[in-house]
């Protein structure tokens, strides 16, 4: 395999920049362009930081600190050198050119982690978690990615994979030696084992509902009748004036979206046009978009003006929120309250009283969001929450195959008939961990990484 090199830090002026080199010729190539103060790169002790100079044969280019990692004890499993130079883009580019001139090749996106995977240093879940950790937008997402990187989720899937393989091995033994009275192929015991596996798979697949919100953010629609204070609420949450606020009804017509973290959860917040029956042509178009946004939202803030009694428009909005994860936000609580609270309590589980204008009550809203999405602390801390749609899809498919195997056994077929579906289920799990995955999928996964990782 080629020896690859890449700038691992951002291409911007900084105190330090890091270049990584990995492959069979990493030490030899680096030795040509780096003069260590003591010794040389080839004989330098593994994982020790050394002072040296990068030179082009004529003149020194930079004073650097380098670490060499001897195979297999490195990130990629190959010989590796990390060059810590001064973080000038010009210096970084000059060192890269020197490395390439001496036989290295510029690395592709994610190629270091891909090599780590191919060399068995990480499984596919762990490798993907490296990318997730770099992209993490909030603390919980970062904690989950770190836990996946450490193998929390891999353990769960490996356990399921091994149990499926065990069942199949027993079936094959039974086919080969039917007279040996193997108890493990008793259909009742097998159904029992498969049901336990199905339970684990379903619980992992279900965790994606929360996991996707943690990773991608909750699409949150701020809806309500005109003038109830939706735009004021958006601005209060963001802490700056993003949306126009006015006492004129129908101010917001286009949808206004922003990303923010609230209660530890990333929200993709959308301020929408107020919903009302009496609306002009443009406003009606805005209301259509509001209804679509509400329908697709993971979370709805249904805003009401607490200083007014409920209007027909408010009641229509309450109907639209049925079946959604919604919080009733009673706004303008700094004014005298005349709203019918009982009606609200009858229709919403989560209710919060705020004054968006005076930024009061927002902490309560944060607490509700935190409880809604992050209450399963045990699963989050142990990393047994799926955040990746690819893992989710394979887990669902695997559970379908396990269910099919159970149906086969319950219908009285012999275990060898169920074995086909059990093999398929194991193969789906293998696609998650990387034990059985095509080159195309591997390339696709790593192409989304940044260069240098
Ligand atoms: N007293 C009081 N007034 C508020 C509060 N929140 C908003 N308002 C006022 O209510 C009016 C409407 O606010 P907006 O935020 O524009 O309302 P909206 O729901 O976005 O209205 P549309 O965009 O027209 O649908 C403005 O005059 C705000 O100053 C509040 O907490 N207390
Ligand atoms: Mg508005």
Characteristic terms for this protein:
six-stranded mixed beta sheet; binds guanosine-5'-triphosphate; alpha/beta; 453 residues; binds magnesium ion; flat; Four Helix Bundle (Hemerythrin (Met), subunit A)
Task: Give a description of the structure.
With 453 residues, the protein is an alpha/beta fold. It is built from 16 helices and 13 strands. The structure holds guanosine-5'-triphosphate and magnesium ion.
Give a short overview.
The protein has 453 residues and is of the alpha/beta class.
- Could you say which structural class the secondary elements and strand pairing correspond to? alpha/beta
Number of helices in the DSSP assignment: 16
Poorly predicted runs are: none
Proportion of residues in helical segments? 40-55%
Order of helices and strands: EEHEEEEHEHHHHHEHEEHEHEHEHHHHH
> In CATH, what is the class of the largest domain?
Alpha Beta
Strand order within the widest beta sheet: 3-4-5-6-2-1-7
Please state the CA-atom Rg, rounded to the nearest Å. 29 Å
Give the name of the CATH superfamily of the largest domain. Answer: P-loop containing nucleotide triphosphate hydrolases
CATH topological fold name of the largest domain: Rossmann fold
**Ligands (ions, cofactors included):** guanosine-5'-triphosphate, magnesium ion
């Amino acid at each position: 395999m080629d020896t690859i090199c890449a700038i691992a830090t951002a291409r911007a002026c900084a105190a330090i920049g890091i270049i990584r080199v990995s492959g069979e010729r990493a030490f030899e190539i680096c030795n040509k362009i780096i003069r260590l103060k003591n010794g040389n790169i080839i004989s330098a002790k593994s994982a020790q930081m050394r002072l040296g100079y990068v030179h082009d044969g004529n003149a020194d280019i930079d004073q650097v600190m380098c670490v060499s990692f001897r195979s297999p004890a490195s990130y990629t499993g190959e010989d590796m050198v990390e060059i810590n130079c001064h973080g000038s883009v010009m210096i970084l580019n000059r060192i890269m050119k020197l490395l390439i001139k001496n036989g290295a090749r510029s690395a592709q996106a994610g190629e270091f982690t891909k090599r780590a995977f191919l060399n068995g240093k990480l499984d596919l879940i762990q490798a993907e978690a490296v990318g997730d950790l770099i992209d993490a937008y909030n603390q919980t997402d970062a904690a989950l990615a770190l836990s996946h990187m450490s193998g929390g989720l891999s353990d769960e899937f490996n356990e399921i994979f091994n149990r499926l393989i065990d069942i199949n091995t027993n079936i094959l033994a039974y086919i080969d030696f039917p007279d040996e009275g193997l108890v493990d192929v008793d259909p009742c015991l097998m159904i029992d084992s498969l049901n336990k596996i199905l339970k684990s798979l379903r619980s992992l697949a279900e965790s994606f509902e929360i996991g996707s919100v943690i990773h991608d953010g909750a699409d949150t629609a701020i809806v309500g009748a005109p003038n109830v204070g939706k735009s004021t609420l958006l601005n209060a949450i963001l802490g700056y004036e993003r949306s126009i606020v006015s006492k004129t009804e129908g101010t917001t017509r286009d949808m206004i979206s922003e990303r923010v973290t609230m209660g530890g959860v990333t929200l993709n917040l959308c301020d929408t046009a107020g919903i009302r029956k009496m609306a002009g042509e443009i406003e009606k178009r805005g209301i259509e978009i509001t209804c679509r946004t509400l329908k697709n939202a993971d979370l709805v803030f249904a805003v009401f003006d607490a200083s007014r009694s409920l209007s027909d428009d408010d009641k229509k909005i309450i109907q639209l929120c049925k079946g959604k994860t919604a919080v009733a936000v009673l706004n303008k609580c700094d004014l005298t309250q005349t709203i019918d609270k009982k009606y609200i309590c009858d229709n919403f589980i989560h209710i919060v009283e705020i004054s968006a204008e005076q930024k009061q009550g927002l902490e309560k809203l944060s607490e509700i969001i935190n409880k809604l999405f992050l209450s399963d602390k045990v699963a989050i801390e142990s990393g047994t929450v799926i955040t990746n749609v690819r893992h989710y899809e394979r887990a669902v498919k695997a559970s379908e195959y396990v269910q099919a195997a159970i149906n086969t056994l319950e219908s009285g077929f012999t275990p060898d008939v169920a074995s086909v579906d059990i093999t398929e289920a194991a193969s789906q799990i293998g696609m998650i961990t990387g034990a059985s995955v095509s080159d195309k999928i591997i390339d696709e996964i790593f192409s989304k990484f940044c260069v240098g990782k």
